[in-house]
Design goal:
Largest sheet: 8 strands, antiparallel
Strand content: 15-25%
Bound molecules: fructose -6-phosphate
CATH class of the largest domain: Alpha Beta
Number of domains: 3
Distance between the termini: 11 Å
Strand order of the largest sheet: 3-2-4-1-10-9-11-15
Structural class: alpha/beta
Shape: globular
Number of strands: 25
CATH superfamily of the largest domain: Aminohydrolase, N-terminal nucleophile (Ntn) domain
Radius of gyration: 25 Å
Length: 607
């Protein structure tokens, strides 16, 4: 989703803006632009292509104050005229992430006042609105007044041609942070954009407006009261956003899973027993009251929730429902105040998940827990309890290591809930802790299968459709495999619980339909084998990811990838990795933009 970078300094900040945008590329975008103040004038450069093109186009541009943007189109097609920054009468320039819901009526009013619109975006109204309030030359006040007229979500950066040392930024519903330098200051959508210039960061809160000057800044809350926010030192590792020896971030992030799992499980694996306190101090008093669990999430994070449902019901004996956040937020549901509402999100900024969380709270759910990868994100801040996945920054748009660490975190929730409910004796707890400690090494062994999977992927390159099958807690893993394949290789892929095949989708199976099956050695194995026979009998080509002891053997039309070991309840975590690698290598075969698949954004901060 859109990315913002802004800077005010005593040096030329164009390289800072461009490098910042390069760091934000992973969020997904279709056009880019920047504007600087140079000799009292706004100089704008925009490109309907990649940031690399913007870099070339802006090679001769210089300025000490500027804002820059990568746009992910919502209102108006991706094009240079719709790319940000948007300007008003060559005086005010604005970049914006989010959606202004009342832009049509504002546009009509501003047109009547004589403002000319040169784009189809909702953002342009912000530029003209600020301009209309700027008569007295107070950019902060003009921006605050303009913001009070907006309905919707925004993170914005605003500059004025006649105010060469000041930048105004604000956030509500979209992420933005302030980077504090020495004699220079910055804003950015996330820390990765600013690590090049500073580690000192102020996380702006909902409704904050900040006046950013060379040597100082002032923050105002939504009511306009000046407030202090703590300056924190970012712990983000600059290397973790570098590609290193890998071809793509997705490949790097798949291979980071053993370490990401170890980091996420660190505190638990080093201790002798599980305690509710890992979710926050209040968990000790809240967990014993919990009667059921409601999981809210989107996309891949929703798949993690679906796996957790099997664990929570079977191991902890607690009823669990999993809902797609974008549906739940508009549904009249029946709340139970003793339900624990669990949101799962890599970014912690997904608009639908955030809205679902707020909807749950508004309907009377007081107990909220966030499982999230970004410490200062909105979802973390708005939840009572939390467990951070420590996957490190995930740059590839297709989520990989965030998913498996979410699963690890949800398994911890399951075990703690089971313990609180008297369903986990000491022996079983130690056994599970032992299995968790072994998980990173087990994942490493699975990743060693990469060359075999790369070979298998070659057989998919000319296919247009694929079916993914799984049963029980591996059905969501099949769904995750299908999602990965469709989003990065653009092959149409659907997942079915294998038992559903004969109720319809079997009609699709022929020699051109690869059928991928997750085949762990569990209680459903024999049933799954029968389902696979049904496919083979219709000429379907099978790709079976089978545990070593399943006795499913390769034969004509049956390709087997043998998993190193069977991991019991943790098996879904290990069975994920080969499906991620399959999607990755199929995408390589097809030559798609693996890290930035078309039409998709990393952090979906609009509805
Ligand atoms: C798919 C993918 C998305 C996200 C979804 C939710 O690979 O990454 O489906 O899982 O947009 O995002 P988060 O987890 O940030 O809330």
């Amino acid at each position: 989703m859109c990315g913002i970078v802004g800077a005010v300094a005593k040096r030329n900040i164009v390289p800072v803006l461009v490098n910042g945008l390069l760091r934000l590329e992973y969020r997904g975008y279709d056009s880019a632009g920047l504007v600087v103040v140079h000799e009292g004038k706004l100089e704008r450069v925009r490109s309907a292509g990649r940031v690399a093109e913007l870099r070339q186009k802006s090679a001769n541009t210089t300025g000490q104050l500027g804002i820059a943007h990568t746009r992910w189109a919502t209102h108006g097609i991706p094009s240079e005229r719709n790319a940000h920054p948007h300007m008003s009468r060559n005086l005010i320039a604005v970049v914006h992430n989010g959606i202004i819901e009342n832009y049509e009526e504002l546009r009509a009013e501003l047109s009547e006042q004589g403002y000319e619109f040169t784009s189809d975006t909702d953002t342009e109204v912000i530029a003209h609105l600020v301009h209309s309030h700027y008569a007295q030359g107070n950019l902060l006040l003009a921006t605050q007044t303009a913001l009070s007229q907006l309905v919707g979500a925004y993170a914005i950066g605003v500059i004025a041609a006649d105010n060469p040392q000041q930048l105004i930024a604000a956030r509500k519903g979209s992420p933005l942070l302030l980077g504090v330098g020495e004699g220079e200051n910055f804003v950015g959508s996330d820390m990765s954009a600013l690590l090049q210039v500073t580690r000192n960061v102020v996380y702006l809160e909902e409704g904050d407006v900040v006046e950013v000057n060379l040597d100082s800044y002032r923050i105002f809350d939504e009511q306009g009261t000046e407030v202090q926010r703590p300056v924190q030192i970012s712990e983000l590792d600059n290397d973790s956003v570098e590609l290193g020896e890998y071809k793509h971030y997705m490949q790097k992030e798949i291979h980071e899973q053993p370490q990401a799992l170890a980091n996420t499980l660190e505190s638990v694996c080093n201790s002798q027993s599980l305690v509710p306190g890992i979710f926050g101090a209040e968990a000790n008093s809240i967990f014993p009251k919990i009667e059921s669990i409601l999981i809210l999430a989107c996309g891949t994070s929703n798949h993690a929730g679906q796996v957790a449902r099997y664990w929570l019901e079977e191991i902890a004996g607690i009823p669990c429902t999993v809902e797609i956040a974008s549906e739940y937020r508009y549904r009249a549901s029946v709340p139970n105040p003793n339900t624990l509402v669990v949101t799962i999100s890599q970014s912690g900024e997904t608009a639908d998940t955030l809205a679902a969380l707020n909807h749950a709270k508004a309907t009377g759910h007081g107990y909220t827990l966030a499982i999230c990868n970004v410490p200062e994100s909105a979802i973390i801040r708005q939840s009572k309890l939390r467990l951070l996945t420590r996957a490190g920054p995930e740059i590839g748009v297709a989520s990989t290591k965030a998913f498996t660490t979410q699963l690890a975190a949800l398994f911890l929730l399951t075990l703690v809930m089971a313990k609180v409910r008297g369903r986990l004796d000491e022996k079983r707890e130690q056994q599970f802790l032992h299995e968790l400690r072994h998980l990173p090494a087990a994942m490493q062994k699975v990743l060693a299968l990469e060359p075999q999977i790369a070979e298998m992927a070659k057989l998919f390159a000319d296919k247009h459709h694929a079916l993914f099958l799984g049963r029980g807690m591996h059905f969501p893993i099949a769904a995750e495999g299908a999602l990965k394949l469709k989003e990065i290789s653009y092959i149409h892929a659907e997942a079915y619980p294998a038992g559903e095949l004969k109720h319809g989708p079997l009609a699709l199976v022929d020699k051109d339909m690869p059928v991928v099956s997750v085949a762990p050695n569990d209680t459903l194995l024999e049933k799954l084998k029968s389902n696979l026979q049904e496919v083979r009998a219709r000429g379907g080509e099978l790709y079976v990811f089978a545990d070593a002891d399943t006795h499913i053997h390769a034969s004509e039309g049956v390709h087997i990838l043998q998993m190193p070991e069977h991991a019991g309840f943790l098996s879904p975590i290990l069975h994920t990795a080969p499906l991620q690698l399959l999607a990755y290598y199929v995408a390589l075969q097809k030559g798609t933009d693996v890290d930035k698949p078309r039409n998709l954004a990393k952090s979906v901060t609009v509805e």
